[in-house]
Amino acid sequence: MTPLSVSASTTIIKQGEVDATKFYVLESGKCEVYLFNESWAEERLVHTYHPGSGFGELALLYSAPRAATVKAVMACKLWVMERSVYSAVKHNFDQQMIQQRQQLVEKVPLLQMLSEDHKAILAEALEMVDFQHDQRILNEQEVGDKFFIIREGNVNVTKQGNVIDKLGPGDYFGERALIQDDKRAASVVAQGYVVCYTLSRQNFNNILGPIEVLWRYEVLKKVPILFNLSDRQAWSLAQQMQPAHFKANEVVLRKGDEGDTFYVIEDGLFSIFDENKCELARVGKGSCFGELALLRRDVRAANVVAIADSKCLLLHRDVFNSMLGSLGQIQHVWRFEALRRVPILAQLTPGQRSSLCSAFKQESFKAGKRIVKQGEQGDRFYIVESGIVGVFKDGCENPLVKLGPTSYFGELSLLRNDKRAASVICLTNVTVLSLNRAGFDELLGPLQQIMQTQASSYDAVTSNKLGTQVKLEDLKKHGVLGTGGFGRVLLVSHCGKFYALKCMSKAYVKESNLQDHVKRERDIMLELQCPFIVNLLATFKDTYTVYMLMESIMGGELFTYLQKRRKPLSENHARFYAACVIGAFEYLQERHLVYRDLKPENLLINVDGYLKVTDFGFAKKMPTGGKTYTLCGTPEYLAPELVTQTGHNHAADWWAVGVLIYELVTGRPPFYDDDRVKMFKKICDVKFSFPQHVSEELRDLIKRLLMKKPAMRLGAQKNGASDVKAHAWFKGFNWPAFERQELQPPYLPKVAGPGDASNFVIPADANTHPAMQQPKRYVSTGVFKDF
């Protein structure tokens, strides 16, 4: 904090002041707080601050107009904290705490098989408990379901009253409780004050799944030919694997035999050798062999014999195909979808895109290996299949950006003979799919001809789901549907079909430093195609503006509908709308996306009465186990981890679902308070109550969605949205019919036709929005060049 001295009558904070970033602590002197209301003739004194008082604390969290004026009554000495300093200090502290937990988890052998992502999730879920001197933590012969890691202090391990071991910080005990209900082999007693991290088997299973299935899942995720499986598909296969035992010297596979089974070694050792009995490899626990049998009918390429008594887990091709379909088809669909996200390939027909899928070559690289070198001539395009790569430029130590699965780089090498603009280096072990220009040209002809004038045209569609060529000038404008932070949404039509066109001023976006924000929204929406999400159909740009063409949803905002009602929704009505949001979030979560802006204003009602989620400005890719620290969203819907800025992930979206359902059935958010400080305290304390009319089933659902600890939140655990859909409040709800949109909605909006915008409240200043006033020229380069 920095010192600040002010004289008497100085205004330290002014009511209504925007972009405030400072928090103050009064060391000496006296300050008065004044409040002004338009109905009052003059401002009123409402409070007095004395030494030791602090004020302006909301500025440390987010930018909001100051709620009151603070004036110095006499000469005062204050200490000032800037938001940027607070955020940096807090972030560093939180990172140290996370790192400490992860290091403790690393020491437990039973947990070594977990991926780094899952270790991070587990570390986050640990609960801190403390014990006093001589307090028993475990009792000998009791059945236990918790394991412990010592953070602080020392314990004695006793058996029949005799001390057999002493443990201290970093040591652990009771870990077998994560596997089964064993009786404790010894007692553990605190020696002095002790702090431990603990986790029960039930919570472990809820968060990550049973440890034995989790081990199989971790192995499957490392098999190259299975990289294209979703997390859900890999987990389903892990549950279906069957055990098999092999005696020492027993032959498992013979070279030349037709194979239909894939093997994962659970315990033991195997030798792989050729027809000349030359050993090619020895493989043990966690290794696998025979995986190509899942992909195609083929003969075994080598012999495999058990060296010692061993156990394997088996998966048959027939089981795989009956559950998921052909592995070849899965790989083809994955590649097809990855290609669809590449803007310069947007003009390819589905047939052309399908042809390219089979032309890719899979390549593997170790961590630290350079795939592309800055300045070299490039002729190869890459899609990341697994792992993480970093993009580096001009010798910088830190990557400009990190790219994960389905990301791509080098796409312009298919178009022209340019030198690489940056280096791409593997941050982890990586597999990529690659395609050179010669292979592309051989299949489809030169890309330049396919794109025609697309690459240079201002009004070109850079990504298109319409199935037809449309240019910006082809769109007929009918009026304004709404305004946002930096643009307007227009109702437009083409060939009798109506769409919503989001218009954003390049200059306004740049002045607001939101270029990455807009680009991320575009990139994420290009990936999405979901019945419960407003889908992006095409993007355009011209000299002054970038555009997103989306499907038009003409039933209006859920917010407007709720405001027109005289009372809150019934639980049946709310259940239907909650199901729509759950459907959208399930889709997003499967794609490792967090939404972060749920509120009734961002839910649109279509003409069939179903909700669609809109506005993906705050959406972000979030890998398993990852966290992000940007404070965003609507204050009433913020989860505790967002308020405290300790890092958040998709669990924050499920918290917001709990807030939404509560608001739907009661008429207001659960933590609402006119005083934002009090509201944030309620959120962090999870302090709220239910009106009497709320059913017990709904109370339980909301409580489980509004769990303070993110890892314990319904929807954020191993089964994801399935846990929410299976909750008792949804008993009898026909999910399959709902997903086919065959259920009768509780409300149908009145829409006279596809161009009827009467359900939208058009702002009075819609045509004078600051972002759309006197246009400022911003040349189409930089972040907008590929829009």
Automatic annotation (TrEMBL):
Keyword list (alphabetical) reads: ATP-binding, cGMP, cGMP-binding, Cytoplasm, Kinase, Magnesium, Metal-binding, Nucleotide-binding, Serine/threonine-protein kinase, Transferase
Query: Where do the catalytic residues lie?
Result: 597
Where's the Cyclic nucleotide-binding domain? 1-107, 110-210, 225-341, 344-461
| Enzyme Commission (EC) number | 2.7.11.12
Q: What catalytic activity is recorded? A: L-seryl-[protein] + ATP = O-phospho-L-seryl-[protein] + ADP + H(+); L-threonyl-[protein] + ATP = O-phospho-L-threonyl-[protein] + ADP + H(+)
Q: Which GO terms describe its molecular function?
A: ATP binding; cAMP-dependent protein kinase activity; cGMP binding; cGMP-dependent protein kinase activity; metal ion binding
Q: Which cofactor does it need?
A: Mg(2+)
Which ranges carry the Protein kinase domain? Answer: 475-730
Residues annotated as binding ATP: 481-489, 502
Q: What class of enzyme is it?
A: transferase
Q: Give the AGC-kinase C-terminal domain ranges.
A: 731-787
Q: Classify the source by domain of life.
A: Eukaryota
Provide a GO CC annotation, any one.
Answer: cAMP-dependent protein kinase complex
In its keyword annotation, does this UniProt entry include Ubl conjugation?
no
Q: Name one Pfam family in it.
A: cNMP_binding
Family designation: Belongs to the protein kinase superfamily. AGC Ser/Thr protein kinase family. cGMP subfamily.
Enumerate the PANTHER family for this protein.
CAMP-DEPENDENT PROTEIN KINASE CATALYTIC SUBUNIT PRKX, CYCLIC NUCLEOTIDE-DEPENDENT PROTEIN KINASE
The name on file for this protein is cGMP-dependent protein kinase
The protein's organism comes out as Ostreobium quekettii
